[in-house]
């Protein structure tokens, strides 16, 4: 219980510090952009302004939250080490795992606030334009949070080995490949090249398949999603995130930060 209170204290401190960096200004800009695009859609489109508002809103929500995960996660530990804050915290009776978990929880809190604000603005615009707020839209928002968590853990994992710029680049490549790997595997170019097919199959097996957590396609085109798919995707995202968290804790405990 004592360590849990330390985790919460570190998370609260991290949350406040990130908010002071005015990172949520990007959220406000995205929200205002959504309002402008929605207004334009009502003037120049016929019959589908609510769909445009939904597509744009979910797109901006995803880009904004994934961007915060990527760039804030890449510097989450390096800033603490450079400012020597980590030394002051760990010199007290604070376990390293409590420090890293608290930092991650604080940043996740900011991400949830970001997603919450943009989601509210998106759903409000869609509702005002006469669109229906279906359960699949809400599920897409929840899965976006899970995707952000997974991306955050990936970039923090790589930041333990490299500098923020390199870890951001590597994670961005993994994110892009994680969304494209399924479609790429099905192309004739890959199917006709056994070696490339094997490499992509290995990648699909080992590295995160982010496409599984992206439900925007179901919202836009299918309007229906199987319960089994939701359970498997949520389980995949949760277990992969848990694995990365344990790896981060293990590596951070062994890392020499003197």
Descriptive account of the structure:
It is a single chain. This protein has one domain (2-254). The chain has helices spanning 2-20, 25-44, 49-74, 78-82, 85-91, 96-128, 135-159, 164-185, 188-191, 194-206, 216-222, 227-254. It contains twelve helices and no strands. The protein is mainly α. The longest helix has 33 residues, at 96-128. Helix 6 (96-128) packs antiparallel against helix 7 (135-159) and helix 8 (164-185) packs across helix 10 (194-206). The protein starts with a helix and ends with a helix. It is globular.
Short summary:
By secondary structure, the chain is an all-alpha fold. The protein is built from twelve helices and no strands.
């Amino acid at each position: 219980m004592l360590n849990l209170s330390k985790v919460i204290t570190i998370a609260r401190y991290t949350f406040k510090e990130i908010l002071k960096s005015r990172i949520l200004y990007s959220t406000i800009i995205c929200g205002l952009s959504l309002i402008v695009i929605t207004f334009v859609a009502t003037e120049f489109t016929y019959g589908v302004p609510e769909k445009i508002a939904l597509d744009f809103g979910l797109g901006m929500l995803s880009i904004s939250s994934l961007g915060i995960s990527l760039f804030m996660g890449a510097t989450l530990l390096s800033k603490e080490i450079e400012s020597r804050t980590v030394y002051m915290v760990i010199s007290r009776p604070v376990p390293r795992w409590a420090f890293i978990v608290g930092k991650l929880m604080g940043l996740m809190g900011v991400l949830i606030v970001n997603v919450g604000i943009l989601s509210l603005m998106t759903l409000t615009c869609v509702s005002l334009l006469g669109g229906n707020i279906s359960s699949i839209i809400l599920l897409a928002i929840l899965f976006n949070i899970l995707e952000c968590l997974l991306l955050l853990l990936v970039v923090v994992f790589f930041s333990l080995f490299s500098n923020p710029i390199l870890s951001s680049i590597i994670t961005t490549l993994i994110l892009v490949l994680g969304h494209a790997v399924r479609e790429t595997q099905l192309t004739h170019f890959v199917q006709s090249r056994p070696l490339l097919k094997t490499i992509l199959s290995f990648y699909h097996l080992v590295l995160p398949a982010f496409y599984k957590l992206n439900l925007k396609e179901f919202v836009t085109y299918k309007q229906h999603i199987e319960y089994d798919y939701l359970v498997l995707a949520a389980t995949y995202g949760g277990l992969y995130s848990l694995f990365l968290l344990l790896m981060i804790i293990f590596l951070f405990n062994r890392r020499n930060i003197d």
